[in-house]
Amino acid sequence: MFKQVYLYDGTPFLAFKDEDGEYQYPEEAWTETAPPDGIYRPFYFNGNEWVGATREEWEANQGDKEKEPYIPSTNEYMLAQTQMQVAESSSQLRDSQNKLADSMLEIAEKDKRINDLEEQQAKILLEIAEMKGDK
């Protein structure tokens, strides 16, 4: 069971019940009152009500300028490529480590089976030796 509350900056937070049945609320200031529809960021809860901009105020602050698409510099592009390669290598390394761990587990299981077979063989040889000694 949970209850949705809102931090004073409008961030939603799910408060879940603990083992004692008590809700675990955030440490930051929060309210159960949801931000109203039609309010534009930035907005905040002042302890009594939500304060923010209307659509018209927000649009007025945006201006009429058309934004050009951002074109990264060569350095930014190269850095992004390098970060992608590092992430891919990291993923491949993680996969390799998982495969190695699986292989080591298989080897350990096979070693145990070999030891078990060697013990069985030793017991059989001992029994054969005892049977030959009884004759």
Largest sheet: 3 strands, antiparallel
Radius of gyration: 34 Å
Integer average pLDDT: 89
* Helicity, as a percent range: 40-55%
The beta-strand count equals 5
> What is the 3D form?
elongated
Low-confidence stretches are none
- Category from helices, strands and their pairing: alpha+beta
Succession of helices and strands: EEEEEHH
How much of the residues is beta strand, in percent? Answer: 15-25%
Can you walk through the features of this model?
The protein contains two helices and five strands. It has helices spanning 55-62, 74-134; strands at residues 2-7, 12-16, 30-31, 40-45, 50-53. Strands 2-1-3 form a three-stranded antiparallel beta sheet, with no helix packed on it. Strands 4-5 form a two-stranded antiparallel ribbon. Strand 1 and strand 2 form a beta hairpin. It is elongated.
Sum up the structure in keywords:
135 residues, alpha+beta, three-stranded antiparallel sheet, elongated
Topology:
Blueprint: E1 2-7, E2 12-16, E3 30-31, E4 40-45, E5 50-53, H1 55-62, H2 74-134
Antiparallel strand pairs: 1-2, 1-3, 4-5
Please give a quick description of this structure:
The chain has 2 helices and 5 strands; from the N terminus they run E-E-E-E-E-H-H. It has helices at residues 55-62, 74-134, and strands spanning 2-7, 12-16, 30-31, 40-45, 50-53. The longest helix has 61 residues, at 74-134.
